[in-house]
C-alpha cells in the first residue's frame, strides 16, 4: 500500500498542463529557413511560405485570379497591404493586367507611401482563407530597396485603412481579431487567441496607447524607475533602440575593456561566447510594478569570436523593442482592444511548482494514513493476543 500511495502521489504531482490540447488550426504558418544575424536554421517543415530573414518576418500572400504568390513583410506601422508593381527592375512584382478580377483606380499619388501607385480591390488569400474585394495598393516604388511589399497589421482600430485580419474578422472568417508571433515554435498566427504551451508561463498584459506606445520605465543598468517613457514594440525591426543616455551607460559597461566597432546600427566586439551571460539584462517596469526583461542572449549574437549587439540609439527619447523582444516573449496583439499579452519563453511554468507541492503533500498525507491504519491494525492484533 505504501508503494501504491507513492505512485499515486507522483501521478498527482505531474503538471496537468501537459494534458492540455493545443489548437493551432486557425490561420497558421510554420516559419521556415530562419535567418537571424546571418545564421541560417533550416526548419523541419520547409513547405510553408513564411520565414524570418535578417531584417523582417516575411509572409506569402496570393493576389488576384489566377492567384499569384507574392512575398510581403509584416509591419505594425501601417494598416495597408502594399505590393510592388511588376517592372523591369522588379520582375517579381504584381501585374494588375494578369488578374481577371482586379479593379483599380487610375494612377494617383499615395501620400502615405510618398510615391505614385494604384488603389485596387481583388481577391487576396492567406493560407486557406480568401478575402474577396479586399483593398490593397500597388506601388511604383514602395520599399523598392527591399524589393518587397508589406502586410500591414496595425496597432489601432480607428486609423486609416483595413488590415487583412480586420477584413477576415468582419466577414466572420476568423474567430478573434488577434495575431501572434512565436519565434520559438516558428509560427505566425492570425485569428485565435491561444497561448497554448505558454499558458502557464510568466505572463504580462498591457493596453497600448495610440500608435502602440506602452508607458514604462527602464530599470536596467543606468536606468531610473521614476523615468516613465514611451516603449513601443515593432516586429519589423531587428534592433532595440534606446534613448541615448541609457544606451551610453549600457555600452560603457560592454566596450570599456573590448575592441569594438560600430556599423549600420550594430556594434560588434571581440569576445568569447561565454561572455554573453555577463552582458546587461534590459529590464522595464510599468506603474503597477509589472516587470518585463530582455536577456543578453536575445540581443547579442556570437560569430567568429565576435559578439554582435543589436542595440542602438536614436535621437528620439523613447524605446523601440524590435526582434530581441520577440525572441524573449510569445506575444499576442489585439488591435481592437489595444491589448498586448506577453508570455515568457524561458520560464518553468508558474503552476508546475504548485502541482509538485500538491503531489508531495498528497504523498505525505496518504503515507500517514497508511501508517496509522497499519499501526491500528497491529495494535488490535496485539490486543487479541493478550485476550487469548
TrEMBL record:
InterPro entries: Aspartic_peptidase_A1 (IPR001461), PEPTIDASE_A1 (IPR033121), Peptidase_aspartic_dom_sf (IPR021109)
Alphabetical list of Pfam families matching this protein: Asp
Signal peptide location: 1-21
Coiled coil: none
Keyword field: Aspartyl protease, Hydrolase, Membrane, Protease, Signal, Transmembrane, Transmembrane helix
Segments crossing the lipid bilayer: 353-376
Keyword Transmembrane helix among UniProt keywords: yes
Gene Ontology molecular function, alphabetical: aspartic-type endopeptidase activity
Keyword Lyase: no
Domain Peptidase A1 residue range list: 57-343
Swiss-Prot/TrEMBL GO biological process terms: proteolysis
Family: Belongs to the peptidase A1 family.
Protein name: Peptidase A1 domain-containing protein
